[in-house]
From TrEMBL:
GO function terms (MF aspect): metal ion binding
Protein's UniProt name: Uncharacterized protein (TIGR03083 family)
Residue ranges annotated for the Mycothiol-dependent maleylpyruvate isomerase metal-binding domain, each copy included: 12-148
Record InterPro entries: DinB/YfiT-like, Maleyloyr_isom, MDMPI_metal-binding
Organism: Plantactinospora soyae
Length: 263
């Protein structure tokens, strides 16, 4: 029986396998190269993914055993331990911790994937496995790109992840967008995406949000869905912008880059 969790779990597996194949071949010099995350070198991105995998697995294990939600002190201890590691330890630790997390997700049967509820500790209520796996995928796929683009300037977000993430990118905009970068200018854009195709609106005002396709937009943004996902998460710098991205109307692509500085 197919479940809502199946696709993100499969995407987590394929993403792990692809990134792990790259990481296993990285030497000490490679690990300290700049990544796509402006303030992190490659090993620091891997540390972030590895510590996140450890925290996610502990949270999932607590849900499976009806244990209490983890407190913030647990996370701080995990982050501190990973931050103290040498780059090669961070890379090796990522390989092991992320493998264990993916395998634990894969081991869940259909009933658990449907019925289990996971308390992440910072949301109003526990969420299902599908939602938790998509949250992890959002973190993993974008940071996978951060690592890969350090070695390949034409890297893209994994195609298995793009359809799953582009449909939930709207929930990120409330906390990652910086509408003040427009100095009071406002606009409502028609957004037309391809691969996969999506038609929606992007309203930029006192806050930034996705809407239904506007009948009379002020302008238009046309882009591959993968590029729009990277734009919204601050990963569409000029040197990493593919053909097929166009913006018309009162705002430019550079304006939108300022609104979405990334995280």
């Amino acid at each position: 029986m197919a479940t809502f969790a199946d696709q993100p779990i499969a995407a987590l597996r394929s993403g792990h396998d692809e990134l792990a194949a790259l990481v296993r071949d990285l030497g000490p010099t490679d690990l300290v190269r700049p990544s796509g995350a402006s303030q992190w070198q490659v090993s620091q991105v891997l540390s972030h993914l590895g510590s996140g995998a450890e925290i996610n697995q502990a949270t999932l294990s607590a849900a499976l055993t009806d244990g209490p939600a983890l407190d913030g002190e647990f996370n701080k201890r995990v982050w501190a331990r990973w931050d103290s590691m040498e780059p090669i330890e961070q890379a090796e630790g990522f390989l092991e911790a992320n493998r264990r997390l993916v395998e634990q997700y894969e081991a869940l049967d259909a009933t658990a994937r449907e019925k289990l509820r996971i308390d992440l500790g910072f949301l109003p209520a526990p969420i299902d496995v599908g939602a938790a796996a998509r949250m992890r995928l959002s973190e993993f796929a974008l940071h996978q790109w951060d690592v890969e683009v350090g070695f390949n300037s034409f890297a893209t977000v994994a195609p298995e992840a793009v359809p799953l993430l582009v449909d939930q990118v709207g929930v990120l905009l409330g906390w990652v967008a910086k509408p003040e970068a427009l100095d009071g200018r406002q606009a409502e854009l028609a957004v037309r995406l391809n691969d996969p195709e999506r038609s929606l609106g992007l309203r930029l005002g006192e806050r930034v949000e996705l809407t239904d396709l506007p009948e009379q937009p002020d302008g238009e943004l046309v882009a591959p869905a993968e590029a729009f996902l990277r734009l919204a998460t601050g990963r569409l710098s000029p040197e990493h912008t593919p053909d097929g991205v166009t913006v018309t109307g009162p705002l430019s692509l550079d304006d939108l880059r300022k609104v979405f500085p990334g995280f």
